[in-house]
Amino acid sequence: MSTATAAHGLWALAAQAPVDRIPAPHIEYAQLSPTLIVVGAAILGILVEAFVPRRGRYPVQVFLAVAALASAFAAVVGLAVSGHAGEKAQIAAMGAVAVDGPALFLQGTILLASLVAVFTFAERRLDPAAHGNRVDSFAAQAASVPGSDSEKAAVKAGFTTTEVFPLAMFAVAGMLIFPAANDLLTLFVALEVFSLPLYLLCAVARRHRLMSQEAAVKYFLLGAFSSAFLLFGIALLYGYAGSVSYAAIADVVDGTTAHMDPALADTMGNDALLLIGGALVLMGLLFKVGAVPFHMWTPDVYQGAPTPVTGFMAAATKVAAFGALLRLLYVVLPGLRWDWRPVMWGVAIVTMLAGAVIAVTQTDVKRLLAYSSIAHAGFILAGVIATSAEGVQSVLFYLGAYAFVTIGAFAVVTLVRDAGGEATHLSKWAGLGRRSPLTAAVFAVFLLAFAGIPLTSGFSGKFAVFKAAAEGGAGALVVVGVISSAIAAFFYIRVIVLMFFSEPKADGPTVAVPSPLTMTTIAVGVAVTLVLGLAPQYFLDLAGQASTFVR
Amino acid sequence: MENLIALLVAAPLLGAAVLLCGGRRLDRAGHWLGTLLAAASFGIGAALFADMLGRGADDRTMRQHLYSWIPVEGFQADIAFQLDQLSMTFVLLISGVGTLIHVYSIGYMEHDERRRRFFGYLNLFLAAMLLLVLADNYLLLYVGWEGVGLASYLLIGFWQHKPSAATAAKKAFLVNRVGDMGLSIAIMLMFTTFGTFAFRPVLASAGETSEGMLTAIGLMLLLAACGKSAQVPLQSWLGDAMEGPTPVSALIHAATMVTAGVYLIVRSGAIFNGAPDAQLVTAIVGAVTLLFGAVVGCAKDDIKKALAGSTMSQIGYMVLAAGLGPIGYVFAIMHLVTHGFFKAGLFLGAGSVMHGMNDEVDMRKYGGLRRYMPVTFVTFGLGYLAIIGFPGLSGFFSKDRIIEAAFAKGGTEGWILGSVALLGAAITAFYMTRVMLMTFFGEKRWQPAPDADAAADVEPSAGHRPGEMPHPHESPKSMTVPMIVLAFGSVFAGGFFAIGDRFLNWLEPVTGYEHGHPPVSALTVTLATMAVLAVGVAIAWAMYGRRPVPVTAPRGSLLTRAARRDLLQDDFNHVVLVRGGEHLTRSLVYVDHSLVDGVVNGTAASVGGLSGRLRKLQNGYARSYAVSMFGGTAILIAATLLMRAV
After folding, report:
1. Were both Cys, which of B309, B343, B377, B399 would link to B370 (CB 3.0–4.6 Å)?
2. How does it assemble (chain A) (predicted)?
3. Complex-level ipTM
């Protein structure tokens, strides 16, 4: 009885307390709905894994993922249409998440890219059926040791790793928050939320499992390493500004802060805190976009991960990470522009050149695309450095264009197979154009887009980025960019020459006929590539309207 | 009525599309469809002509605007037509002669298994040629210009299994490209000068433009005309173009396409009027070509090549007249039309002779054919009388007016040009009489058909066996009827046009007309023409009528031998252009290999080497990667701090 009374007493005490002592968090659920939908789907997906019989999981998971991504995209469009990309842009969730033009544009891009990527996750017609069960790109049972009896038993039983769908949903949720994060802690949490599922996804390839696991471990180790740097940078910035909120830090950097307390006045003068902290946070983001010298993980992980995951990761991670980078540089550190611009110049130049040069001698198509993605990160950095509205616009456009080309290209890679699974060694692609002209032609379109040949989205994007950079006073950067584009064009065209002008090998790979799922992915990729190449203006305008960050 | 103009082009274009895409199903009826659509085009043309006649002289220009092809600010490219008296004349000539030659081809190409395709090409040619003369701007004209070039290429090389035909087609195409460059440069100059290339604004503002610019445009247009109309120095392709089937030679390489250059000059009269230098060059080109072609025509034993030389020469007359300015425009076109009749008739006659003679083309192996092929003989004979300018026939009126106009140019130029034209008339009489005598008169010099090896090389329509003696016979009705119709044109057209100045009154509103300053009376010129005509005929009679013609050609004088080689035009081109071009390319290739490739390959090799070395950094150990990240971060921080310090 007495305990009950005591409890009652506590309640009464709580009720009597002044309301402003414990402010109830004010959450704008509607504005966060895209993320919430995806997180909800991820949690539902886990429940599905727990309660739905094994046979039924695949269709339910695919449906859940597709429905969640589609409705989240609809929510993004709804928010954008109702003005949240423009005049109604604001910071939601107690200053943690920005809902503005860049955030919504990037979220829409991530959702669409994830949608077509999920189609390739769900593809089950490429490999021959094992023991009468259709199989996808993922291991029968990720936990079983490669080559063990338990693995054989799992294959025989027809197990499949349908957990990849909720994992992908968690990753997407993190990526949605990442470019919208408006304080450093949210940024870090979002980073981990999308990184951890990706580490796992990298490890679950059906073929070459050891390589896949090796890739995952490398990715995890290096990812953790870079997270540590990032976290240290956050700590230093907090030490400098006394806040993790973007706006507050920006005010301190600019010297326009309203609340000046003695502790802050003490640290504010210490620019080393600011500069080192900013550089460390920058490094964490550069790791995610794959900029040199933080790129070393990219080729190994791209090669080892299951190809659908590689496509998803290459496209969506890059979009999210560049979104976060843009927000950091444009919202938090614009006052530091004269410090970070020269450094970023160097990073962009090294990234463009190294990516293009090292790609020249690659012999594996997935590694080739990995180095290509590094070079592209350099091109996008050139747009980031412009520090103008046009720069943001061009980067947004480039990211949208690049995401679909990448997913499409990796989807084509899944089709070219021999007895050992995907035939990724370039020598096996010789003469592909003679045997499978359509597949080779589609891949050629993607390669031309990567190379930035006119009438493809790659050209429009590269043009926009270089134009913004040149107008932003980075003419030398543009020259380097064009030189690296020329070097890069060499290895893209070399693959086209290999496909169309070499004699096919007798024991060459075959091109699998995919289900409508992968076909949709590739068709969307081609369509976006051509539409953005032929009529880019509408989308450039769209990106232009979405290029203002809320502060 | 204006809305019918597009149909003129659309009918044959439809025919070409159906025949070329329709496949073998149309093999049996395709030639009828092609002929019908050509006739339809002529019918529409005739209806428009009747309508035009019903209007006043100033109200005769019809326009039709189909759509804007490239509607950009400051650059309007319209698909629009303009049908005035000048275009109307061409429409009737092209579709009329074109229809007749379609009919003729039904018989001529009867044994050819690719007849459907042939008619498709013919229709394509008609469509392009009509587009050329109906366009209301230079850009659309250029489309038609290239279109007839394509059709000409396809038809010259129609018997592509013969290497000579394939080569001739290629040669025609290449030489024409030189002229086409001229036209495209002229159009670009027009655009920069006038800001448009529609006829009306360009020609209306030509008077306010500097003479230098007009001369440049005029010379470029002349270059274009030289290519298409086989004028010196771009004349070399026409003789070889005779490798095509004879109806093609008649339609494209005698009556219509080769006159496109004359059309271009007359259409651009306002530009040439403002550029006396360009005009003089035009007249000189015409005068040189008319002698050149005539001399070549004298020496050729191949009946079609002799006629080709004659075509060159007659177009020379037209270009000469066009170069005289308003004094000559009308007569250039008038001669063009009458020439269209009699030269087409002559070619069809030649085709008929070849048809009867196992496709033999060497006139030295003809002889005495008048008794075996009476219809061909009479129609060819009337064409012959017309071309040499026998009094009362078409050529008499049209050529005579050109010679008069040349004298009327005035001054020394007038005397020189007039004398050249007069000399040309004498040579024309000589070589045409020679053709006539060698073919239809004298004793039979027929030879058995060549043996099997050579037979593979002759036209597949032949249907004869090797070693067989020819059995000359009259050609079928489908071939003779067009010849008869054209013979009527050869006889009466000139008189109809000239008496009462009908043609002059008809065209004058478009081209303008000046009488000029004739130093001698028209009667004097006519009498002089008659006199040189008689001399030419008499010499030919003395050489080929009274004496037997040897079957193998005698060695001949130096001039004869040069003329047989087309006055060394190919040798000249070979030595100067081909050899020169080869030397140029060889030295360019040398520079490319040693210098450019050296730089390129060196760069590529160094990039590749760098790539190979950088690749080794990617050693697969996560620890190395971490070190690189750590080092990178250190550099990043150091650089940031350094920036602040600086």
Report:
1. B377
2. NDH-1 is composed of 14 different subunits. Subunits NuoA, H, J, K, L, M, N constitute the membrane sector of the complex.
3. 0.89
